[in-house]
Amino acid sequence: MIDFWLFIGFSMLETFAMFYFIFVLFKIDIYPKEMIFASLIMSFISYVLRTVYELPQMDVIVQVLLMFCFIWLLFKIHVFYAAILTGMAYQAYMFIQGLYYFIMDSAGLFDVGLPYILSICTFVLQTLSAATAIGIGYFLSIKRKGFDFVPDKPSGKIAVKTWEKVLFALNIPSVIIVLLTMYFASNLSTLFFVVPLVNAIILYGYLYFAYKKDRAEDEHFSV
Q1: Distance between CA atoms of 130 and 118, rounded to whole angstroms?
Q2: What's this model's pTM, rounded to 2 decimal places?
Q3: By the 8 A CB rule, do 6 and 115 touch?
Q4: 122-141 pLDDT, tens per residue?
Q5: 40: Cβ–Cβ under 8 A, 6 or more apart, which residues?
Q6: Spatial separation of the C-alpha atoms in residues 133 and 21, rounded to whole Å
Q7: Which residues are paired to 219 by β-bridges?
Q8: What are the CA-CA distances from residue 32 to residues 18, 80, 88, 91, 135 (Å)?
Q9: Contact at 8 Å (CB) between 7 and 117?
């Protein structure tokens, strides 16, 4: 039972951090209760898939889909932009966690033989990653930085321009990297330095084209 609550607690912390970071980055209103609720649901499903059915690869796919659905249906973000936010949230968080993992693994702190929910180092990794994501989000909020092109209407038509197409297309390599990282997790210790590098490149693409989109003069949303 202790393992269950530890898993749920740390998993919720990570999921909440991703919601918080991406919403602050795109200047979307923060709804703490809804974010906690979504994080709880996602964490519980993750626990069942990982520990009961032993399907960690399936868990990754389900978590991405759940975050997309929550951003779209619970937080009322247009479905097109919900997909972009989901991909960017995972890419940014993987970049942060990948750096911490690389540092900790280089120091010999990880033992791949330890079960996921029993590893103290994993809890430390999760805490550092979540704290960093929340910290960056808080810094962006007090500096009033971020992008504001995501419409606050859940429905309606959008005129898809070049920047939107590029941002949406970046979801493809983003999801592939997430899946490959999880699928080859047991063999990452030797080549893990490549993962943060690839994440950084894709994340830079997200930020660059989001900046271009945010500075566009024409309005892209219509009803």
Answers
A1: 19
A2: 0.83
A3: no
A4: 899 999 999 999 999 999 99
A5: 8, 12
A6: 6
A7: none
A8: 13, 23, 20, 22, 16
A9: yes
